[in-house]
Design brief:
Length: 489
């Protein structure tokens, strides 16, 4: 490792592309290219970490842990609020850098994503101050529940919403009194580096937050197999999660895994069709690169023609182009490899007999036309596997039982959306769906108080609200005998 300067200037914003370990910038001897999905240009050369940097980061986190764990809740909360202040002060820098890095809409970063980043820190800071469980009695004995900091945590985050999803993990881990090694996705690492700067300026002690970058699994394996790591939280693909699980198994390191899905959007004949169409078109958000997206449209037979006509009209009006343009609705897909993957799914589906109602093809650069495929079999690849691009399928059902059967017939169970005008149907159907989150006549409404996670191969565990503290802490119950102090002088 070296400490030579290594920076990039992105839209006028200077970003240090070295690791952040133990409160210092550390460069690797090798780098990898970070490419903008907007135009394919090389944004930066990023320090390419190895097992050596992984070990250094975990060692720094381990060394910093006793001091941070002993820091009062009030002081931890104060620093987290100071980090949120720093995010808000640099909101425009964070927004433009992340747009250049992962291709998501600049307007969304400005108005929704980066404000949510700040809110992540504020929410868990405030939640920490109110975290409590009322003592209870057992045959005269007093039970007292406490949340003890667990130790160094490895957080591995995805590229589709890099900073928001990173801080969704970083904030509760730090609030709980843990130290963190954050490994951002190789395709979108830049805002994690800016977060390290912001946290240091907010007064977070050295070693409490470490950021290491890597390519492929070369640094991830070293982090997830390290015996000093006490928690691992990962958001990403099922194959990678299986590898992480195997790596963590030797140390029995507790895992939280959020692994995406193949979520259904059920449209019943009694639904407000305009609302249903709006919900369906919204699934193209972030160029379809949303784990929660309802990519399987399940529409009741009696309204499918009307629904499809309205959908095509609305989806065809979406503007696709440069995500920095305020008028753009859909930006590029993250990487040429991802674009090839998306197109492969679509072309195989078309070859198998699917029909493209709209789209079905690549566009110039790293853009894929918003696509709706019909005439698809339930057991087909396009229905069963996560595409992670602007590709939806359309199937019909005749009865509520048919709708539920189709909705649950995948190996995933992350989310589901229901459009109906009947509250009794909504309650009945939602109770039968296999999903961590069900939205009724809405989509993507997420409160940090609520548990978040998936069923089946959509994940393991829940985070959010007190569920985050249950994961990031060692929850302890202390039982005290009655009259235990009679000899105390």
């Amino acid at each position: 490792m070296t400490r030579e300067p290594q920076v990039a200037v992105i839209a006028g914003v200077t970003v240090d592309t070295r690791h952040w370990i133990g409160g210092e910038r550390v460069a690797s001897t090798e780098t990898f290219a970070d490419i903008s999905p907007i135009d394919g240009s090389v944004l930066a050369e990023i320090s390419r970490g190895t097992a050596m940097e992984a070990a250094a980061a975990v060692a720094a986190a381990k060394a910093a842990f006793p001091g941070w764990a002993a820091t009062s809740r009030a002081e931890r909360a104060r620093i987290l609020h100071a980090i949120a202040d720093g995010v808000e002060k640099r909101l425009e820098d964070l927004a433009i850098v992340e747009t250049c890095d992962n291709g998501a809409l600049l307007r969304s970063h400005r108005r929704g994503v980066m404000p949510r980043v700040a809110h992540n820190f504020r929410f868990f800071a405030d939640c920490l101050l109110t975290l409590d469980h009322e003592d209870f009695e057992t045959r005269g004995h007093t039970n007292h529940v406490s949340w003890d900091p667990a130790g160094p945590c490895v957080l591995i985050t995805p590229w589709n919403a890099p900073l928001m999803l990173a801080t969704w993990k970083v904030a509760p881990a730090l609030a709980a009194g843990n130290t963190v090694v954050l490994k951002p996705a190789e395709w979108s690492p830049l805002t994690a580096s800016l977060l390290a700067d912001i946290a240091a300026q907010a007064g977070l002690p050295a070693g409490v937050l470490n950021v290491v970058q890597g390519y492929g699994s070369e640094i991830g394996d070293a982090l997830t197999s390290h015996p000093d790591v006490r928690r691992i939280s990962f958001t990403g693909s099922v194959p990678t999660a299986k590898r992480i699980s195997a790596s963590a198994a030797a140390n029995l390191t507790p895992l939280s895994l959020e692994l995406g899905g193949k979520s259904p959007l059920l449209v019943f004949a009694d639904a407000d069709l305009d609302l249903a169409v709006d919900l369906a078109v919204e699934q193209y958000d972030n160029a379809g690169q949303v784990c929660l997206a309802g990519t399987r449209l399940l529409v009741e037979e009696s309204v499918v023609e009307d629904f499809t006509r309205r959908f095509v009209e609305k989806a065809s009006a979406l503007k696709q182009g440069d995500p920095r343009d305020e008028a753009t609705d859909i930006g590029p897909n993250i990487h040429s490899r991802q674009l090839e993957k998306i197109d492969g799914f679509v072309q195989r589906a078309l070859a198998a007999g699917a029909r493209a109602v709209i789209g079905g093809h690549r566009k110039d650069g790293q853009y894929y036309a918003p696509t709706l495929l019909t005439d698809v079999a339930q057991d087909s690849e396009i229905v069963q596997e996560e595409v992670f691009g602007p590709v939806l399928t359309l199937q019909t059902f005749a009865t509520d039982d048919d709708a539920v059967r189709l909705a649950n017939d995948t190996r995933f169970g992350l989310a589901a959306t229901i459009a109906t005008g009947d509250p009794e149907r909504a309650e009945r159907v939602s109770a039968q769906l296999v999903a961590g989150t069900v939205w009724i006549n809405c989509f993507f409404v997420r409160d940090l108080q609520a548990p978040f996670g998936g069923s089946r191969q959509s994940g393991v565990g829940r985070e959010g609200g007190t569920w985050s503290f249950d994961f990031y802490c060692d929850v302890k119950n202390t039982v005290t005998a009655p009259n235990g102090w009679k000899n105390h002088g």
